[in-house]
Amino acid sequence: MTSTVAPPGGRPAGAASGRSWTGALRDAAMRALPPEKLLPEEQPSYVASWVYVFGVLTLAAFVVILVSGVVLVWRGPSWWHQSKAGLFFNSIHLWSVELFFFFMVLHLWGKFFMAAWRGNRRLTWITGVVSFLVSIGCAFTGYLSQQNFDSQWISTQAKDGLNSVGVGAFFNVLNFGQMLLWHVLLLPVGIAALVGLHLLMVRHRGVVRPLPDRTMRRARAGAAADGPGR
Amino acid sequence: MQTLTEASRQPDSAEWDGPKIRYDLAKEFVIALVVVALLAIVLAVVFSSPDERPVTIRQWSQATPGDFLATSATELDGSSGVAGYGPPYNNTKGAGQKIFFLYPQQWVGVHLPVDTAQDFVLGPLQVDAKNDPTLQGELATYNAASSDQQAHWTSAYEKGLDKVTFSGSSVVLPAGDYGPVAPMLGSLLTMARTGSLDAVLLSSPQFYGTDYTKPLLFIADGSYLADKAQAQHLAGDQWGMMNETGNFPGQAWLWLYTMWYQISPFSSSGNADALVWSIMMLLSLGLVLLPFIPGLRDIPRAVPVYRLIWRDHYRRLAEERPTTTR
């Protein structure tokens, strides 16, 4: 155990010789994301467009996926085939996934046309795109875990692509147990971690500012060339 | 605090010090969550979700016994799709796809070994033969024969299947030198029809089992599964990845991946999977690294969608400028 005794009202003994890792971590976190930056009550005036809604809608759909998924996990993989309640929660799970991808793709296109990677925001873009790719994998394993005709057909078709690049030997889409565990544990944890990092990056760097408007610049340049007596 | 014009002139990496608006992130998230949850519930109530029962070997053998027997014969003589697949299932020479001069399928080797004759035909028949001395004798005859003799029997049997008829539970073949192959595969068909072949192929040495590799490979080697999928527009050349059983939406986000399979040369290439996967991996990497790729990262500046997104901002900026530049 690593511990030091703090004198009354002072820093821990040994603090003079160097910072504790915990203190350094806390200070770094506070510098990167002070509370007012983590949960601000104001945004730059340009954050006034419907395009900003798609990110939060994606996050909301992810929460609905997780909640409906937890209900399905709670009762086990066969439940939804045997009960109306199970089918209902499976349906919520399916449609929230469809909504998730719909909103996520709109969010992605929106951020592309905003060139949202500007101003040291490349990692925000990268975590967002990787989240999208991992989400595709998670949805795919969901289809494989359904235990129905769909799963049979999709797995027997998908194996060829994965085998052709050498992945199928280790990620066997015909192995229901392996696919189910990837679907309910590894991939959701991966997505949650990536989305969490993505959100922290957004809060850390702030929302990207508008691109310089070329039309306005051209108009100003044209006005200057015409002279004041126009 | 800076004016809108002053703040807009700062570099992209600078913290915004211009005008701000009240923005309640927590409230926005809660409203979004309620809206999405309600939307998902309404869609679930109205459309539900598809759940077509899985295909069993019993169902396959009862519906199309000729296809079942033909598939079993190819598994026995090693001419089936899986028998000649190559890694990760077996070491068939020259099998496996390549990406130009790269052979990743070959490099990984056999990790999920499948011996189609033993796993799909002889092994299950040995289980059945424990209580059937006649079948025991037929298996012994087959196993004792030379590989040329075995090939002669299976070849004759596959030709005979072209004229096979079924009378009740009996398989009626034209006269031919089938050796023990005809009664063996007749027994396999009986096992399949009663459901015991499903049980044998699904059984696991450690009682609990979750790996369906072998039964799925066997079923997929036949035509029954593919015909059912074709009828539901799920085949690869029908944009199948984007479809679902019934009229439900499938994985629409895979539109680009499935598109390659519809066009030449991928639609007819023996290496289509490897090539399409390579393209998609490259494109995905390109999307991830887009901020670093000159030309591509400049597209948003050339396409005026951003003017639509930030139209209020540009309008306010235009209104402010005459006063600030005076």
Supply database-style keywords.
heterodimer, A: 230 residues, B: 326 residues, 17 helices, 54% helix
Structure description:
The complex is a heterodimer of chains A (230) and B (326). Chain A has 230 residues and is mainly α. Chain A has helices at residues 21-32, 35-38, 53-75, 79-82, 84-113, 122-144, 149-164, 176-205, 214-226; one strand spanning 42-44. In chain A, helix 3 packs antiparallel against helix 5 (84-113), helix 5 runs antiparallel to helix 6 and helix 6 packs antiparallel against helix 8 (176-205). Chain A is globular. The mean pLDDT of chain A is 90. Chain B is mostly helical and 326 residues long. Chain B folds into 3 domains: 1-48, no CATH class; 57-226, no CATH class; 232-288, no CATH class. Chain B contains 17 helices and 3 strands. Chain B has helices spanning 4-8, 25-47, 57-63, 65-77, 104-108, 116-129, 133-144, 147-160, 181-194, 196-202, 213-221, 224-231, 255-260, 272-288, 299-302, 305-309, 311-324; strands at residues 20-22, 165-167, 170-172. In chain B, helix 3 (57-63) crosses helix 4 (65-77) and helix 4 packs antiparallel against helix 8. Chain B is elongated. Chain B starts with a helix and ends with a helix. Chains A and B meet through strand 1, helix 3, helix 5, helix 6 and helix 7 of A and helix 1, strand 1, helix 2, helix 5 and helix 11 of B. Strand 1 (42-44) of chain A pairs antiparallel with strand 1 of chain B, so a sheet runs across the interface.
